[in-house]
Amino acid sequence: MSSTVHALLQVLVMAAVIAFLRFLPFMAFPEGRKRPKVITYLGRVLPYAIIGMLVVYCFKGVSVTAYPYGLPELIASAFVVTVHVLFRNTLVSTFGGVAVYMLLVQLVFR
């Protein structure tokens, strides 16, 4: 089997698995069926828990005892919070925060 055919088969299998995983919740909990309370609870609390874990993961490697003392991360985080409070748009705050952080790291805090 050529490497092109092998790569194509890998992509097709991955696409099928991803599609199955995306459709699984809709198959398990159809429109008219009542969801279990634990699923409703997890749907309410998991987004905040995941965001909290991402924040902890993003700041885990920041050193406040060495240059640049965590300033790029702090400034970018403040920017994200400010933009999100002002515009209530997750994409704008996320992409803006990434852009500010990259500019700070690449141009200001070398």
Would you kindly provide a brief summary of this structure?
This protein has helices spanning 3-28, 37-59, 71-87, 90-108. The chain has 110 residues and is mainly α.
The helix content is over 70%
Give the N-terminus to C-terminus distance in angstroms: 48 Å
Largest sheet: none
Helix and strand composition category: mainly alpha
How would you describe the shape?
extended
Arithmetic mean pLDDT: 94
Q: With helices defined by DSSP (H or I, 4 residues minimum), what is the helix count?
A: 4
**SSE string:** HHHH
Oligomer classification? single chain
Can you put this structure into words, describing what you see?
This protein is mainly alpha-helical and 110 residues long. The protein has a domain of 34 residues. It is built from four helices and no strands. Helix 3 runs antiparallel to helix 4. The longest helix has 26 residues.
Feature tags:
0% strand; mainly alpha; 4 helices; 110 residues
Describe the secondary structure blueprint for this structure.
Blueprint: H1 3-28, H2 37-59, H3 71-87, H4 90-108
Helix pairs in contact: 3-4
